[in-house]
Amino acid sequence: MEYLTTREELRAIYKTPAPTEGSIRKELRALDAHSKNFLAKSPFVLIGSCDGQGNADVTPKGDKPGFVAVLDDHTLAIPDRPGNNRLDTLENILRDPAVGLLFLIPGMNETLRVNGQARITTDEVLRTRLAVDGRLPASVIVVKVLACYMHCAKAFMRSELWKPESWPARAEMPTLGQILKDQLALPQPARETDEWLDDAYAKSMW
Predict the structure, then answer these.
(1) Most CB contacts within 10 A, which of 5, 119, 168, 194?
(2) Which residues touch 124 (CB under 8 Å, ≥6 apart)?
(3) Which CATH architecture has domain 7-159?
């Protein structure tokens, strides 16, 4: 199998030698009213980061709509809720602050993309602002917005992501307990792992 190695080779196989004018002009350097409105309604974001040595990672963050706070036209704050404590994204940010964010709104095929520079803070005032039922996030990712723009709907239209009739039946896929049992050769029944996960979810969402 042969691979493309230059920008010229890449551009040659597409219909136009350069991005369209509109796709370039839509990229903003600050959050406008539409971007802020999107963020206020978004309950889910994917964060892309890198460890500085070429190893990339994408992690999901989700909460109630608007959980990512707009601090000003150039700054976002993402609370870090309880998770598995791998801290992949946070450790990556310490090594390389560049991040790419993809915000989703359920049922909406368009997405909001934000690229920027991230830092981590434990500022008490900000953590308190982002608390849920009195539970403060352990830390907050503060992102300086360098670029933001709306992304078109084609990927979501092709995938029919928001159409329930296109979804596979959940029973067609194994539970996480079964997957972990097989991958980690766990001795206990998969049901016990699933019950433990359900209990952990119930007790440590925030």
Answers:
(1) 194
(2) none
(3) Roll (2.30)
3-state secondary structure of 54: coil
Domain residue ranges of the chain, discontinuous segments joined by +? 7-159, 168-203
Order of strands, sheet of 56-62, starting from the edge strand that comes earlier in the sequence: 56-62, 44-50, 98-104, 111-121, 139-151, 75-80, 69-72
The amino acid sitting at 46 is L
**CA 3 to CA 6: how far, in whole Å?**
10
Instruction: Provide the β-strand partners of residue 80.
Output: 139
Q: Please list the rounded mean pLDDT of every run of 10 residues in the chain (206 residues).
A: 94 81 91 98 98 95 97 98 95 98 98 98 98 96 98 97 96 97 97 96 91
DSSP 62: E
Q: Running DSSP on this structure, what letter comes out for residue 132?
A: B
